[in-house]
Amino acid sequence: MKELRFLATPEKGEVSAILIKPEGATHLLVLGHGAGADMRSKAMQSIADALAEQQIATFRYNFPFKENHRGGVDSPKVATATVRSAVAAARKLEPKLDILAGGHSFGGRMTTTAQSQEPLDGVKGLVLFSFPLHAPNRPDDKRAAHLAEIKIPMLFLSGTRDVLNDLELFRPVIQKLGSHATLHLLDTADHSYKVLKKTRASDEDVFAEMARVTREWIGSAKA
Hints:
- The protein is of the alpha/beta class.
- It has a single domain, classed as Alpha/Beta hydrolase fold, catalytic domain (Rossmann fold), CATH 3.40.50.1820.
- It has 6 helices and 8 strands.
- It has helices spanning 42-53, 64-67, 76-93, 106-117, 167-177, 206-221; strands at residues 2-9, 13-20, 27-32, 56-61, 98-104, 123-129, 154-159, 181-186.
- It has an 8-stranded mixed sheet with strand order 1-2-4-3-5-6-7-8, with helices on both faces.
- β7 (154-159), α5 (167-177) and β8 form a beta-alpha-beta unit.
- α3 crosses α4.
- It is globular and about 45 Å long.
- The mean pLDDT is 96.
């Protein structure tokens, strides 16, 4: 594990990042956090650890609002600029690894937003953990409109109990995206990947499942 800093934007200054590179790594996933957590949250750590078991390196980073301990979230302009800066920093750090980008919730949505506006340099695919289709228990699919502009492979890892993603709305969105999008549902998982162990069909750890599916998707999507 390596801790470092990079310039998010000239106005917001530097933010922190953590690189985890397992032996034999083939890909590096640039990973943004959600609105309610930072890069050191338990879920982000669990995602990174599980991906490392699948020889996928991660470059976790803070958005400026968390780095500076402010309330609310960064504007889309600041957040998407930070995503681009993180990708550039990761590529400079590990130029020999194939680059993926994405994140949990807000971090994932800002990554897809950035990619839809202008392709992220060198990024071969996007991995979206708990994509936030709408506000909690307020079904709407407007947040997904920009996904149609993305022309690289996307993997969505969504829990069946996620109150920020009504699957009745999200499944048609994925279908319209065609071969660019893959949706993997995590049985009984909520937005933070808490599961109902008594009713969950699989006994596989949910983070291990996401990492395994990501590795399989990399091979099938050629990301």
